[in-house]
Specification:
alpha+beta; eight-stranded mixed sheet; 15 helices; 8 strands; 53% helix; 12% strand
Amino acid sequence: MELTTVTLNWFDVISVALTFLVIFLVQVLNVYLHILDDNADKTKSIDVVDKACVKECPPLESQSSLIATTPPKSPASVNGKLEKQISLLDNDSHEDEDTLSLENLFPCDQTEIYASKKISFIIDELIQTEVNYVNNLRKGLVNYGKLKDVEDLPEGLSGEAKQKLLLGNIEEILELHEQEILPLMLRNQRDLKGLFDEFAIQFEKNRFYCYVSFTMGKKSSMQLRQDNRLWLQTYQTLIKDKLGIDSFLVQPIQRLTRYPLLLQQFISEFYKSGISCKPVLTAVCKLETRMRRALDVVNQAEEIPNIEELNELDLQQMGNFRRSTEFDAQHFPTRKKYRSKVFLFDRSLVCTEVRKKRLAYRQHFNWENVELQRPLDSSSANANKIINLLVKQQEGGASANASGKREEYSFVAAEAAVVKQWLQATHKIIEIARNEHARRNTFSLPMDLVLGVILAIWLIWQYL
């Protein structure tokens, strides 16, 4: 076998090097522009941070009404539409900030806290119940996590899909608590501020969204258990499980509701004891508020499977669920009025009609096709309770009207505070959509393309 040698001259090397350098600079510039865009987003974003206190936040100050703008003659880009929504919602959003003081910035002596037997008992209970929770989830998965391997398994429970439907994402919940929550509790047993701060970060990162997903699948799981009740009871006796699968699958929601109760007890005893350690109080109040908000979203998510004609929606394509709110809705073109419950997702807004105890699906809209407005007449007593929703129709659609191809809806809340909370949630969702759109439109060269270009240039200069 003859070995052929490849000779390279300086011209070949310099050509390939310059090509690689240009591609590298393009990537660096792309990253730099993306960082600038993120920094700009941070200056505009509204991240609601709670004050370090137990009492509720004060009412939001009323803002000047938004003047409706004339639709542009040419279609604007999606990012431009989202920018308008950000500026609109900035006028009606309120940002609570943690009280910044030297007491919060510097650590305090926590010896006084641990000297209180009642507070020490609460902390011990928080950690010990977390240990028990992890052990119970692990044991439950051992009992019911591999039913596919059990003999005489009924057809109604066979298959991976039915197993997933039965247990939901319980494995994801176990992973969160086993690898994140319990370890942070154990390593911060003598540093309560660190414990509460790290715990709050888990909520800020939306790590507890697994409970929302679990709740949305609860109805299907309960129905599956009911259809196979006799076999599950027989299997429970066979494996000598005293509590059963129902008790196992109710534990996640029980645990999530237990957290804020323990923290409220901690805060109450903190005040009763007269302890002067404000950083710890700041951290625990911040965490307790985030827990309550997460629990509200979980409770609201339980209604999503109750929406009739839900098969028209692809929930996975709609992103994370954020919140639901009841309004008195009116569709202006048809003048139809109905009681509505509006569900906010990261990529879509879903409108339903409340019919006694049922939720009938009406329509859903992508955020890039939605504009929110406040009433022009701000002097009205009910102006702060109203949100107008303008929806741009598809080009050439049959439902398009003569005034800019828009449909208009009006949502009226029972209280102005409900609208302001809804706008804050909507602001965050639209900002997420804007950031995703910006990332999709960012110029980037995949690595396989870069390597292919380099190889092609080298071959051209070598053999031509």
